[in-house]
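User: hey, got a sec? need UBX domain-containing protein 11 folded
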Amino acid sequence: IDFDLILAKVKELNLLAGEGIAGIQLRPGGAQLRQPEALPLTLYQDGMVMRDQPFRPYRDPAAQQCLQDIIDGYFPSELQHCYPDGI
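Assistant: Yep! Here you go:
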């Protein structure tokens, strides 16, 4: 696993998703700045955890697909059901 490559790609995706840029959320009587929702990704020597999902070893096909999506410059396809309109 090339952790440096994965971290670099995650940083690129974070910028695309608007990291550091607040949005405006309308509320009754005004508006409030809103930061984009974080999607935690923790990489271990032998596996990974994304969001509130259980630990997945890197030999797990779903973990491999997730990392390949990131390396290819895409948001993980497994997030499509949670974010059908995109990030």
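Quick note: The first strand starts at residue 23 and ends at 27. Let me know if you need anything else on UBX domain-containing protein 11.
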